[in-house]
Write a structure and sequence with these properties.
Length: 760
């Protein structure tokens, strides 16, 4: 009879688990040490003690060293680094110290994985590397987990996160082990780790503590994290930018004797375009002009496949907030080497365009050159000089530089009038931030001719770039804006008819038809309504390697060429021009060409992401600015109607607030989706887009950007009660209730009658 093997010591068990990570079940340990019969009970006791002390971890009847990962592990994917390597981390980690770093190795046929995706991976330990394991995909088990930014509230179980999104459904529950030390009231970024748990709330873990939500300039930080906008450059990207040197003249065309100037906002963070206009001395082009547009040669510094290139493509574009910018490129490039500062040699891609006196482009020529701007000017400064009030800097520039620019603009205006691009008139607001990070004022930007002429020059250059690449038969990314759908145009036509205007029907829609509608409404009480409704009928512009035209600009071919510092699309167009003209080895690569469709989708998505982040930030700043005016009354216009209430755009600030349905009278309101109306069941009162209203600010929540309003008057009429009687003492300052104005009611009745006739 053989003698039973002795029970192994704790150290022997740990050594075995480390040496045999794929044999960690209790039966594997017993077999390895020859433990049989009643001795297994003692072994089981030892394993339980080691588990309780944290020396080993039990997983599905198996034990392992908690400082190591099992051979098959659930991983959460991290983002690629500047070298193109993709990393991962264990979805759960309870060991001491930071979680092991895992390098993910993609094999042919494996799906592309995004940051946050969850996979089941097979791990192989590695030694003498900065990472601990190499992972290969077994299968993908989940897409990127949902992330939120919110306020952390400490609880006995750990904490809860109060989302700052206006549309968030619920709070999130955070176990104590994954709060990352967040304190009560702090702003945190978290990700979902599980479905709704015992408390009825989805589970989450804190990823990063962002600090005090009321701190100055925290508003844009919230948007950056909320929308996942990368705001830190990897070390490799910064090192590559810092190592860059000014581009030499080399084979470039020397344009340094030409008096280029840059014209930008007073607070411009980068200067990527310079202009110059010469009167054409060709007798065949009497009263014509030569317009030069020179654009920073970003392609010289951001070459295909480099760390800078991969990061720029991932970001897609710069994102602009009232208090900061999240740039596409590091400051060494965006604010220095690629910025066309005055009296400094700068590498450019330039186009010289010949136009006639009617603004028609007769020809163009592209070149890779070197310029030296003679002046960094501001829009207001240039306009004042043109209007006869030059300052010390512009006085010597008026006759030879500024006047020709305006003369060429007058010619381009004539061509624009014939082309008839969409002429929307929607004022742009500007949030002014003080040194303390708080809003000091809300202003509406003034549109000067100086702004418009630069826009016209840039449009002309963008058209020339698209046409040049089509002639060279080189791939490119077009800026596409497709015509609106028939359904949206029909909805716009109904709004126009209800307002007493007409929109042409029964022919191919052109921007000229929409401009005619906008012209009809100009100066009327429905001016803003028609402009907003027209804008909402438009499709969203995007990037594509296929040309579908640009409806809004009324152009057949259009590409983005003029802002490569802040848009990756323009960098692709620059590379295509370099390749087409043979200007160097830094042109469009084969990888760029093969992945053009994917790049178009990527940068279209990042553009929408930035727009959403910028819009959310504006809403929050406006809510903060108005938060000390709760109870005040404002005038505005109904800008949207939904079944849960009506949106109002306030005249004073342009802020959008919500009147909840429960606050619109003491009666039931029916939502007519087709007509975009709320109709009172007892009084017949109608709430619809475009109506003038007076409201009281009931609530302003800076952390979400939400404004809640109380409706006081519609088109000058006080609010009726649900039984048709006057409200007494409920809304101070309201007028006695009376029926809606007859002309407005008549227009709405006609509109509804037209709809019923169409349906029949």
């Amino acid at each position: 009879m053989s003698k039973a093997a002795p029970i192994p010591s704790r150290q022997q068990i740990l050594d075995w688990l480390n040496d045999n990570p794929d044999q960690t079940a209790k039966r594997d340990i017993a077999r390895a040490f020859g433990v049989k019969g009643q001795a297994k009970i003692e072994l089981k006791r030892i394993l339980r003690e080691m588990e309780a002390e944290g020396l080993i971890e039990k997983r599905r009847r198996q034990f392992r060293d908690p400082s190591t990962l099992p051979p098959v592990t659930v991983l959460r994917m991290l983002r690629e680094d500047s070298q193109g390597d993709q990393w991962a981390e264990p979805a759960e980690w309870t060991g001491e110290g930071p979680a092991p770093v895992v390098l993910y190795v993609r094999r042919e046929g494996d799906p592309a994985l995004a940051q946050g995706d969850r996979v089941l991976g097979r791990l192989t330990p590695v030694e003498d590397e900065s990472y601990g394991y190499v992972a290969r995909l077994i299968r993908k088990i989940g897409t990127a987990s949902h992330r939120i930014v919110g306020i952390f509230r400490k609880t006995a179980e750990g904490g809860r996160i109060m989302p700052i999104d206006k549309g968030a459904e619920s709070e999130w529950q955070v176990p104590a082990a994954v709060t990352e030390g967040a304190k009560d009231g702090e702003l945190v970024e978290a990700e979902q780790t599980g479905p709704r748990g015992r408390m009825g709330l989805p589970r989450a873990r804190v990823l990063e503590v962002l600090g005090d939500p009321s701190a100055p300039k925290a508003v844009s930080l919230i948007a950056i994290h909320q929308h996942g906008i990368p705001d830190d450059f990897p070390d490799e990207v910064v090192a590559e930018a810092d190592a860059a040197e000014p581009a030499p003249l080399g084979d470039r065309e020397d344009l340094r004797k030409l008096p280029f100037v840059t014209i930008d906002p007073a607070d411009a963070r980068d200067r990527d375009d310079a202009v110059l206009v010469e009167r054409d001395d060709d007798p065949k082009n009497e009263n014509g002009f030569l317009i030069w547009v020179a654009i920073a040669d970003v392609a010289h510094y951001v070459t295909p496949g480099s760390a800078l290139d991969r990061e720029a493509r991932k970001r897609g574009n710069s994102t602009y907030f009232p208090d900061r910018v999240v740039p596409m490129l590091p400051d060494r490039l965006s604010g220095d080497l690629c910025s066309l500062h005055e009296n400094v040699d700068r590498a450019v891609l330039a186009v010289r365009m010949k136009i006639d006196e009617h603004g028609r482009k007769l020809s163009h020529r592209f070149t890779r050159g070197m310029i030296r701007s003679v002046g960094s000017l501001e829009y207001g400064q240039v306009q004042s000089a043109r209007d006869g009030n030059p300052d010390e800097k512009t006085e010597a520039m008026v006759e030879e530089i500024i006047d020709p620019i305006y003369e060429a603009y007058e010619a381009l205006k004539r061509a624009r009038a014939l082309r008839q691009p969409l002429e929307l008139d929607l004022p742009e607001r500007q949030i002014v931030i003080g040194d303390d990070g708080h809003v000091t004022s809300i202003q509406f930007k003034t549109r000067l001719d100086a702004h418009k002429l630069i826009e016209e020059f840039m449009v002309l250059a963008n058209v020339a770039a698209a046409e040049e690449l089509e002639k060279l038969r080189r791939p490119l990314l077009y800026r596409v804006h497709e015509e609106p759908s028939l359904e949206k145009i029909e909805a716009l036509r109904e709004v126009a008819q209800a307002s007493g205007f007409t929109l042409a029907k029964g022919q191919v829609l052109q921007t000229a038809h929409l401009n005619n509608l906008l012209s009809q409404s100009e100066g009327s009480e429905f001016d803003e309504l028609i402009n907003i409704s027209t804008l909402r009928s438009m499709t969203q512009a995007y990037y594509a390697p296929t040309n579908y035209g640009h409806f809004g600009l009324a152009l057949r071919s259009y590409a983005h060429f003029t802002s490569p510092i802040r848009r990756y699309s323009d960098l692709i167009v620059h590379r295509a021009l370099i390749l087409g003209h043979g200007w160097g080895k830094d042109g469009l690569s084969q990888w760029d060409i093969d992945n053009l469709e994917e790049t178009a989708q990527q940068i279209s998505d990042t553009e929408r992401r930035s727009m959403a982040a910028e819009r959310d930030t504006t809403d929050r700043y406006l809510a903060a600015y108005l938060s000390d005016r709760v109870g005040s009354e404002f005038t505005g216009r109904i800008s949207g109607v939904q079944k849960f209430g009506a949106f109002v755009k306030l005249d004073e600030t342009g802020a959008d607030g919500l009147i909840p349905i429960r606050e619109i009278g003491r009666e039931f309101f029916h939502f007519d989706r087709e007509a975009q109306e709320l109709v009172g069941s007892e009084t017949g009162m109608t709430i619809t887009i475009g109506q003038r209203v007076r409201v009281r600010l009931a609530e302003a929540v800076p952390i979400t950007g939400g404004l809640m309003l109380e409706l006081l008057e519609v088109e000058g009429q006080g609010m009726p009660s649900g039984n048709g009687k006057r409200r007494k003492g409920r809304r101070p300052g309201t007028r006695p209730p009376r029926k809606p104005a007859r002309d407005a009611a008549k227009k709405k009745a006609i509109a509804r009658k037209v709809k019923r006739t169409r349906k029949k």
